Amino acid sequence: MHNLRSIWWMTRMNLFKWSRDLRILLILVLVGTLTHMHISGLISFVHNEHFTIHFALLPFWTESSYVKILFFLPIFILFADAPFIDNLQLFLIMRSNRRNWVSSQILYVMITSMSYVVCVAVFFGVFFIPHLEWGSDWGNVVNTLSKSNMGSQLGVLINFPRKIIDYFSPYQALFFSFILQSLVINLMGLIILLMNIWSSQRYLGLFIAASFLMLDVLIRSSGVLTWVSPVSWIRLTMININGELSHPNFYQIIFMLILLTIGLVYLIVKRIRRYEV
Questions:
Q1: What is the pTM for the complete model shown?
Q2: Which of the four pLDDT bands, split at 50, 70 and 90, describes residue 277?
């Protein structure tokens, strides 16, 4: 119990640094700018015509590889300097042991990943205030975007695949997207953390994480290779729902993400004993 309290206390110390970390402000500005840039035409249309649009737009940004690359840039900025060594971290290591300290870093990566997904979801909704709807149906605007070329006419740069509309309710899509996006972003953060404590090459972790992002672009049309592309798993259209695809289903994806996360955590905890702070 003492170890758990110590881990949580050190995690909170990392989170408290956000209030004076200029990178967090940069990331908020970057996410807000990217979001507005990709849906500005739709924002103007909804406000000018006084339509309402469902707030559950989070599932759609992952459907375009180009958009996905842009939205992963803030994630790489967040985790680039893992394990986040500074004077405070040196103090925390001296007060605790290395295992507790690195456990707090792992927990911090997990919380940061979920926070980023929430941040993106909020930005996709906040620009449409007060024309948001919260019902159990997707509504006319999203339905029209999914079965017409209205999006391209408005200059909307994210896709609204019909498969998501047909197979998921807004809240189901939002829930599945939050889980998958949080787990995949966490996986990228743990890869960067592991590589940064494993190698003296500071950018090796970023390179490997970015390679997975590029892999998603290269295998977009291949069903079999999707099994080895974690970044592809955050697209709801890549989930095998009724056996019509050779892709993994939701439970297989969750199992693989949890298994990979456990493996990375084990390697990080094992490696930290030889890490020179």
A1: 0.91
A2: low
